[in-house]
Amino acid sequence: MNFRKKVLAGMSLSLLATGYSGVSVAQASGFTLEEVVVTARKRAENLQEVPIAVTALGEDTIERAGIERADDYISLIPNVTLVDTANIGDTQVSIRGIVSTRDAESTFAYVVDGVLSTNPNSFNEELFDVQQIEVLKGPQGALYGRNAVAGAILVTTKKPSNEFEAKLTGGVANNNATKVSGTVSGPIVEDSVYGRFSFSNRETDGFYKNTFTGQDDAVDFLKDQSYRGRVIWDISDTTSLDIRAGFSKAEGGAINFNAAFAIPQFVAVFGSPTFAVDVNDQPFNFVFNVPGENEQETMDLAIKLDMDAGFADMTASFSYNDLEEYLLSDGTAATFYGYEVTPACLADRASLNSFTSDFFGPAFQPFGVLPPSGSGAGYDPFADGANFAGVYGPYTPLSCDGYQYQERNQTDMSIDVRFTSKEDSDVRWIAGFYVAEIEREVVVAYGADTGAGFLRQPYVPANGPNPTDLLFWDDFDTSVASVYGQVEFDINDTMELAFALRYDYESRDVNNKVPNVAGSGLNVNLLDGNFQALPINAALVSNPNGIPSRSESFSQLQPKVTWSWQASDEINVYASYGVGFRSGGFNSVGTEDTLNFWFNAGYGGPGEAVGAGISVPDAYDKEVSTNIELGAKGEFMDRRLRVNAALFRTNVDDNQFFEFFAGPFGLLRSVTTIDELYIEGFEADVNFVLNEEISLFGGIGLMSSEIEANRHRPLSVGNDVPQAPEKTATLGAQYVKQLGEGLELSVRTDWQYTGAMWFHTLQGEESPTIWNAFFGPGFNSDFLDPATGSNAQRDAYDTLNLRISLSGEQWSVTAWGKNITDELYLQEVIPAPEFGGTFNHPSAQAAYGVDFSYRF
Fold first, then answer.
1. Cis omega before residue 664 (within 30°)?
2. Record's InterPro entries (predicted)?
């Protein structure tokens, strides 16, 4: 179906059953839409009067749409998408095509109860006991500071009150999924101290099975336990203290990717089209032997003081967060024969080769594992013609592919103090300062799978069960200081002009923790000319006394100017110009040396035959975005119809972009930059109260983008910006019927559409691969299929959700389904051009279940 037909089909379904928004929180109240109050400019204002493109989701929508995690509301907003793949905290949010980057800072400010979170992993948490969610589009750096280049997401949790209340919720679903959550709230000291405690426990086996081990709960499983407490103390009529604390522990699968080649010359050599397959047609088979596991523990504390200082209202907040996370999974090195002659690899090949097992599919389509032809005393594995000859895949049951281990640990503290003018001031203003200290530890390790188990630690010595052969291990320290302010004044009775300005300064230091030792010697690709093991980090070759520390500072002025005009009683118009800033940073030392040796000419390694000509330095520049926007917000038909729309153009200098490299060394994660790009587009959302029982809603986002300069990958100039789909759309409706005697029936359906999406800057350009060093020239990757137009672009897809609820005064029962048409689509495609293929992750399939809740 083409895009227009999909929209019409979704509209037809919505009109049959449906319900309220996901686009600009409007609740049906009689025959009108209720006023929506937002805090986008750090003060309470009517949504329709705020000169910012804001989507706000209230308590009713959060409950009736079944919003429980970030993806549930992101999918309801045009020009906003989310990718959730490698591990629990690894979410990439794209707001108007500006996407948050793996291993770098976020691109949006994430604010909970008015307190900015400095830990990007905290975003993908369970959403329970939430009052409202606001999504602000466009640079918001002037008020929200560092990293708000794409926008801001504000979450407001429910406040404790002076009246006792309690709620218990539970549910069961397919894939052996269960959930239980609860809340209790009320006075601790009558009329002065109020408390609220909530918890959530969720488990699911996931949609996919490990066909090697036969386990249903070993691929995309998830276990999450979260606890939150909040206390508000009204110290006096003018002063209150808000204390919030939380703890969560999550366990899940990790690195659930399958690989696909994109090398036409392999097709010619092997006579099989599977060596240049369209990723959208790839069958997924999870057969890893290393347990894919991810564990994350998070603790957070926020203290906020609100006080009437006479001339202004003062808000002072302190935030502390602590995250500890690791992941362990299979590796990628088997294809490059690194561990080919280890006893574990030879034993696995003897029993799990492509001719006696079906884990790889038909032989050499595209993977082919040859069994060794000899064994026993005197056997020389290097002389065996069956060795170093197969075409292996990553993430297989063979120990030949090694393992990978990663850690992301962070501790941070921040203080934010601001003064806000009184609401009745002729000139409204905000002034404040912000400071933060962030300590982050990053580990990426790769080593041998000897079959003896795994130590879950950054470095394992050569005599350990899983010795380390490649290690990136750094401590990053960041100090942040900023001052900010905003002034709003009325030009006349219908026009307002606002000026905002922020100055951010960041000092960043990195200290390397890689021990100055050699690898295990088990990986034949990591031996020198004398067959001795190389150091476990390439930078140690040129720094024999240890890898030096590094430091850099980044600063930026972030102005914003906004004009707004109440054109009539029904219509408000606004225009704005704003700047956003994301600090530069560091890749792990050794990144540049490793890639130069293996992929670039002039460094004396295999790169002489590859000649990729890529540039990925050990440090990357700050990112600056500039946005111009024109918007209009209107309410018509006696406030039964609400229409909000905006046109925008964003120019970005040094856009930070994640690159993944796989090769004989193992794997490597890095951040590079795209020198110049632009994204321009249009978005609109509509809410309409048809009658007392039916509300309709919808939205559309259109974007056009282009990479204008990219010295790191010059071939990409003229291509689309990654993760900036040209079309996104939502459509749905809500039906609410009072049945009498306190009973209420509600039916809601949401349809979402996301257009085709690229994930890399290369989108059809032929690129040299490491295979040219093994087999000679001509084995280049090519992500453009003459027949289909692309074999690495994710196809457009659409999903449909449905919820039917019956509720009484104290209870409710809901039957629900997500992706009820069982649309099969990719969650992410990670191209690795120098490897010659892509690493691909499937999305969730159809889910359905029943929830219940009871209020005490």
1. no
2. Beta-barrel_TonB, Beta-barrel_TonB_sf, Plug_dom, TonB-dep_rcpt-like
What's the Cα-to-Cα distance from 538 to each of 444, 589, 595, 815, rounded to whole Å?
14, 8, 9, 56
Q: Which amino acid is at 302?
A: A
Q: How many CA atoms lie within 13 A of 764 on its CB side?
A: 13
Residue 787: its pLDDT value, please? Answer: 60
How far, in Å, are 138, 144, 466, 793 from residue 79 at the CA level? 11, 21, 44, 18
Between CA 730 and CA 696 the distance in angstroms is 11
Distance spanning both ends of the chain, measured CA to CA: 48
DSSP, residue by residue, 452-473: S----SS---TTSSS-EEEEEE
- Give residues with Cβ within 8 angstroms of 424, minimum separation 6: none
Return the pLDDT at 15.
34
Torsion of CA 273, 275, 277, 282, to 10 degrees: 110
Burial 548-564 (b: 16+ CB within 10 A, else e): eebebebebebebebbb
Helices (H) and strands (E) in the chain, counts: 10, 39
- C-alpha distances (whole Å) from 363 to each of 67, 132, 284, 355, 366 are 45, 54, 16, 7, 7
pTM for this prediction: 0.92
- Percent helix, percent strand, percent coil in the chain, to nearest 5: 10, 50, 40
CB-based contact 130:158 (threshold 8 Å): yes
Specify the pairing of strand 108-112 against strand 151-157. Answer: parallel
Residue with token string 């118009």: 573
Buried b or exposed e, range 434-451, using 16+ CB within 10 angstroms: bebebebbbbbbbbbbbe
Q: State both tokens at 815.
A: 């039957």
Beta bridge partners of 700: 684, 729
Rounded-to-integer distance, Cα 602 and Cα 610, Å = 11
Which of 507, 419, 506, 520 is CA-nearest to residue 465?
A: 520
Residue 569: both structure tokens together: 């009683």
Which stretch of DSSP H or E encloses residue 507? strand 495-512
Residue type at 503 in one-letter notation:
Y
Residues 6+ apart with CB under 8 A from 535: 516, 517, 518, 519, 541
Q: With CA atoms as reference, report the closest residue to 33 among 47, 43, 45.
A: 47
The answer for residues whose C-beta is within 8 angstroms of residue 531's C-beta and 6 or more apart is: none
Burial of 15 (0-12, 13-18, 19+ CB in 10 A): middle
CA atoms 709, 710, 714, 719: torsion sign: negative
Q: Block means of pLDDT (10 residues each) for the chain, length 856 residues?
A: 41 34 40 87 90 93 93 94 89 93 88 85 85 94 88 94 94 97 96 96 96 94 96 96 96 94 89 90 93 94 95 95 95 86 94 89 89 88 91 91 94 96 88 96 95 96 96 95 95 95 95 95 92 92 89 95 96 96 89 91 92 91 96 95 97 95 86 96 96 95 97 94 97 94 94 96 91 90 73 94 96 97 96 92 97 96
Q: Is the dihedral of CA 777, 783, 788, 792 positive or negative?
A: positive
pLDDT at 786: 62
Q: Which fold has domain 3-334+402-855?
A: Maltoporin; Chain A (2.40.170)
Residues in the chain, total: 856
Identify which of 675, 671, 694, 690 has the alpha carbon closest to the alpha carbon of residue 585.
671
Cα–Cα distance between 143 and 434 in angstroms, integer? 11
Taking alpha carbons only, the member of 762, 760, 771 closest to residue 663 is: 771
- Of 361, 260, 203, 392, nearest to 826 by C-alpha is 260
Give CA–CA dist 2/321, Å, rounded. 46
